[in-house]
Amino acid sequence: MNTELPGNIDACLVGLGNLKRGMLPMTGYDFRAVHDEFRSKVLGYLRGLLPESEAEDAAQEVFEKISRSLYSFRGESSLSTWVYRIATNTALDRIRSNPFKTISLDVQEMDSIESPSPSTEKSTIKREMNSCIRGVIRQLSEDYSTVIVLSDIEGFTDSEIADILGISIQNVKIRLHRARARLRTELEKFCMFYRGDDNEFACDLKESFREFKKELE
């Protein structure tokens, strides 16, 4: 199996300690280290913005772009914000080219889940709830979905989000406030939250979302 990664990386070395701090030295960059450090993080981020069927391809596209551009990175911002800026722009390009594809909640996948055994019920409920919430996030406008995922799921600060999105910190604060309010409204419209027998929160799709999704198909 060919495990070679894109880009001429073998001659480029960088300390992993610097990488984990988010900054790279001026002397060289190791694409393999960047790939290993960020691959799963970027894929998880893209799954918050794109349907599952597109997230994997988008992640591959992101790292192809990184392999071509890493030589030009000078450490003027953190490595993580630079990587996530590329990931965000890649996701937005896909959303804009086919916006209806982003409105996806994997309804069929949730419907196909069999009744769980007691030992797996809690993890199944959490998976369904995460799918429900992420699906509703994906049907928000791109301005709202990106800032919600970056802040509330990925854990970036307002300053880091401003760097990733190329907007002011004040605009991040305003956009995030409006995005959370809109998400709350949409969750009330499409998801029904309740407490299970073990007093844990769970979520079911309302019929209104299923009907909404059918209108788009």
The proportion of strand residues reads under 5%
CATH topology of the largest domain, which one?
Arc Repressor Mutant, subunit A
**Can you tell me the residue ranges where pLDDT is under 50 for at least 5 consecutive residues?**
1-27, 100-119
The first-level CATH class name of the largest domain: Mainly Alpha
The CA-CA distance between the termini, in Å, is 39 Å
Output the radius of gyration.
19 Å
Biggest sheet strand order reads 1-2
Instruction: Give the oligomer, counting copies of the same chain as homo and different chains as hetero.
Output: single chain
Provide the succession of SSEs.
HHHHHHHHHEEH
Major sheet: 2 strands, antiparallel
- In the CATH classification, which architecture of the largest domain applies? Orthogonal Bundle
Number of domains: 2
Structural class call reads: mainly alpha
The rough form would be described as globular
Mean pLDDT: 74
Question: What is the percent of helical residues?
Answer: 55-70%
Secondary structure tally, helices? 10
What does this structure look like?
The chain is mainly α and 217 residues long. It has two domains: 1-102, Rna Polymerase Sigma Factor, Chain: A, CATH 1.10.1740; 103-217, Arc Repressor Mutant, subunit A (Orthogonal Bundle). The protein has ten helices and two strands, in the order αααααααααββα. It has helices at 16-20, 31-49, 52-69, 79-97, 107-111, 121-138, 142-153, 158-165, 169-190, 207-216; strands at residues 191-195, 201-205. It has a two-stranded antiparallel sheet with strand order 1-2. Strand 1 and strand 2 form a beta hairpin. Helix 2 (31-49) crosses helix 4. The longest helix is centred in the last third of the chain and has 22 residues, at 169-190. It is globular. Mean pLDDT is 74; it is low at 1-27 and 100-119.
